């Protein structure tokens, strides 16, 4: 069942233009968890006060805001969604600890190799 953005109060700050592998990763997780959300487009080269206040350390996108609280870094956001909405949609990480470690290895590999290489396409 689709949980409403109003009910869950989920907002996703992401680039308003271009392709962001990091933001797509979070959007895929939101889809798997069957969560609706409000997308707030940002200009990564002219950062809004909301972005700076939500991610003061890295000042990067994406940022998920849940019930007014920001969660930063795409992989951490994905794990947060899996934990916070355990009853929604399909589980993203497996339950077996070894399988979780393998999944985290490949997520980290994608960060190192794929997202880095695609930076030329992203913002
Ligand atoms: N490790 C971060 C990387 C995020 C990232 O590099 N975001 C880019 C957009 S794709 C960004 O905000 N660039 C603007 C900047 O570096 O100031 C994550 O996984 O969320």
Automatic annotation (TrEMBL):
UniProt KW Hydrolase keyword: no
Subcellular location: Cytoplasm, Cytosol
CDD domains, per the entry: GST_N_Tau
Enzyme class: transferase
Gene Ontology MF annotations: glutathione transferase activity
InterPro entries, per the entry: Glutathione_S-Trfase_N, Omega/Tau-like, Thioredoxin-like_sf
Family to which this protein belongs: Belongs to the GST superfamily.
Protein name per its UniProtKB record: Glutathione S-transferase
């Amino acid at each position: 069942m689709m949980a409403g953005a109003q009910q869950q109060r989920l907002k996703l700050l992401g680039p308003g233009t271009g392709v962001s592998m990091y933001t797509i990763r979070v959007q895929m997780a939101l889809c798997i968890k069957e969560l609706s959300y409000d997308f707030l487009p940002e200009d990564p080269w002219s950062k809004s006060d909301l972005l700076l206040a939500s991610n003061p350390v890295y000042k990067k996108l994406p940022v998920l805001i849940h019930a007014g609280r920001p969660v930063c870094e795409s992989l951490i956001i994905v794990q947060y969604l899996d934990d916070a909405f355990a009853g929604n949609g399909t589980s993203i990480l497996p339950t077996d600890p070894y399988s979780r470690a393998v999944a985290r290895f490949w997520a980290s590999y994608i960060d190192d190799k794929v997202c880095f290489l695609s930076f030329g396409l992203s913002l």
